[in-house]
């Protein structure tokens, strides 16, 4: 159990009914200038490979992955792709899958554009904006084959726990967006966040679509092989363990199907 009495995984702000997603702002506003190379990538590649979320607060048109990628293929959403090291390496290993990377940090996205370009990858697209909006407004229920969340910001202070990306409402939303059999793959190097995530996963409302540990990970429909990123390398050097979760969508229990209150 998470021992901090000030906050718990169920402390998330209430669901915003107008938008229907938990109001979690899990990212920091980070300024970062693009290098000259990144500016070139942005100018040349973003118009076709990237999409910005609207800034006027209007609802977003749904993601039409088949048109954007020019093919029908299983789709993976990576939340908080950072500089895209994992995104590009895993996409190169899985050319049969399409990967949508969501990140708010423009220099990270620009770096990923460069990796995609240099690697000749055709199966990566990028979205700049809040993954919560993406999950809620752009992604249809039961549409994703995988969701990846690698090293989410741990928000270590108790008063910031409500900003953690992974909490009850957001996990529920992720479960809903996965296809049956789809996989939620999480990694963290933060021991307290790992405990928190375990607690969230253990305490899901099973009368709603939820996720359960994937018993036989060799049956995962997506690769689980991650390269070692900057974050993981630092964790290893500093002696911190990485905790990894591989979960899969499970349907609501019969209590819900029978009309029980949830
Ligand atoms: C600690 S970094 C990890 C980056 C990368 N996954 C890695 O393993 O190297 C977490 C990243 O998640 C991004 N992030 C956090 N919340 C987000 C959100 N709601 N939508 C999009 N990106 C988010 C942050 O901007 C940050 O770049």
Distance between the termini: 23 Å
The number of strands is 10
Helicity level: 25-40%
Residue windows where pLDDT falls under 50 for at least 5 positions = 1-5, 10-15
CATH structural class:
Alpha Beta
CATH H-level homologous superfamily name = Vaccinia Virus protein VP39
Enzyme class: transferase
EC number: 2.1.1.33
Function: Catalyzes the formation of N(7)-methylguanine at position 46 (m7G46) in tRNA.
Keywords: Methyltransferase, S-adenosyl-L-methionine, Transferase, tRNA processing
Would you kindly provide a brief summary of this structure?
With 262 residues, the chain is an alpha/beta fold. Helix content is 32%, strand content 20%.
Molecular structure report:
With 262 residues, the protein is an alpha/beta fold. 32% of the residues lie in helices and 20% in strands. The two termini are 23 Å apart. Helix 1 crosses helix 4 (106-119) and helix 3 packs parallel to helix 4 (106-119). The chain has one domain (43-257): Vaccinia Virus protein VP39 (Rossmann fold, 3-Layer(aba) Sandwich), CATH 3.40.50.150. The strands form 2 sheets. Strands 3-6-5-4-7-8-10-9 form an 8-stranded mixed sheet, with helices on both faces. Strands 1-2 form a two-stranded antiparallel sheet. Bound molecules: S-adenosylmethionine. Residues 26-27, 80-82, 86, 102-105, 108, 130-132, 150-153, 165, 229-231 line the site of S-adenosylmethionine (SAM).
